[in-house]
Amino acid sequence: MRRMNNEEYRNIVTPILTIVVILMFVLGCGATEPPLPSAPIPVPSVAITSPSATVPPISAASTPAVPAPSDSRTITVSVAPVSHDLPDYDRDDWRHWNDDDRDCQDARQETLIAESRSAVSYRNADRCRVESGDWFGVYTGESFTDPGDLDVDHMVPLANAHDSGGWAWSRERKADYANYLMYDNHLIAVKASANRQKGRKGPEEWRPSRREYWCQYATDWAPIKQNWGLTATQRESDALGEMLATCDEPTSLVVVSGTGAAISPSAPPASTVTPTPLPAPSSDELPYDPDGPDRDCGDFGTWDDAQAFFIAAGGPNDDPHRLDGDGDGVACNSLRRN
């Protein structure tokens, strides 16, 4: 065999080595690891909960509805100026205290009975007059057991009602107002001195010293005026608004224009006082026959005897013996004891 010279050897080996080098380079590049990133790649966190802690989604139907805010109370009052040429107020035109149900308990006694926090006791067996009870004076926050310490106040005073339109009422309508028992706080038993400080004043001039009662005072005052067709002054209306601002429940005052001279009130419910069941005095229990000869106050030893005789004779609507000289529905005030 002929031996290859160097040149022939190079011509054969060189291409082979070239192919081998190329293959090694290609294979080496495929195995090279990629460079590490300069910053770590953020991996989203996944909250993993155990099956026992899985909470099902709350449906809209199971969500409690949020109650809509309730509308505030509204109280209406008619505002008009007071005329300066009104007739003079005469308390005698507003006859009280009457006994409309003829049970011998006049409107004052009925109020004392209704507002006592415990059963009242009476002066005697005829149960006409209250001897003692348990009353809370809402104007001052004091308690009382002796009715002599109390006045029965007209929430809207008679003179104030007169100036607000009541001056034009008939005497019968004035008496209805003065003895009205069908609205709880139209008549109210209060400390006598507080009532006398109040007098004929409206809330722009006088308010109870017990501030906690201001809301109730205003929510009684305004409806009484509105229901009886009475007006308020602008200052009075402003004062009522201030008092209503103390209410726990939002209460707004609606002011409307009034006439200033109501001829007749809007008709309140008819006074239908339920008579208190009491033993009616028989003629044997009376010192004199009510249908007999004329009697006067000097014939009676006590006021109770005179009043029982007065009722039996038809009082207070009829007074054939003229025992009720001042027309207040009570006989013989000269004998009357507090």
Distance between the termini: 165 Å
Going across the biggest sheet, name each strand in turn.
Answer: 1-8
- Rounded Rg: 47 Å
> Percent range for helical residues?
25-40%
Number of domains: 2
Tally of DSSP helical segments: 8
Largest pleated sheet: 2 strands, parallel
Describe the global form.
elongated
**What's the helix-strand series?**
HEHEEEEEHHEHHHEH
* Average pLDDT reading: 78
User: Given the helix and strand composition, which structural class is it?
Assistant: alpha+beta
Quote the beta fraction.
Answer: 5-15%
> Which runs of at least 5 residues are low in confidence (pLDDT < 50)?
29-70, 260-282
- How many strand units? 8
What does this protein look like?
- The chain has helices at 6-31, 107-115, 158-163, 171-178, 192-198, 214-227, 234-244, 303-312; strands at 73-79, 121-122, 130-132, 135-137, 142-144, 150-154, 187-191, 251-257.
- It has 338 residues and is of the alpha+beta class.
- The protein has two domains: 73-268, no CATH class; 281-338, no CATH class.
Secondary structure elements and pairings:
Blueprint: H1 6-31, E1 73-79, H2 107-115, E2 121-122, E3 130-132, E4 135-137, E5 142-144, E6 150-154, H3 158-163, H4 171-178, E7 187-191, H5 192-198, H6 214-227, H7 234-244, E8 251-257, H8 303-312
Parallel strand pairs: 1-8
Antiparallel strand pairs: 2-3, 4-5, 6-7
Short description:
This protein is an alpha+beta fold. Helices cover 27% and strands 10% of the residues. The protein folds into 2 domains: 73-268, no CATH class; 281-338, no CATH class.
Q: Which terms summarize this structure?
A:
338 residues; alpha+beta; 2 domains; two-stranded antiparallel sheet; 8 helices; 8 strands
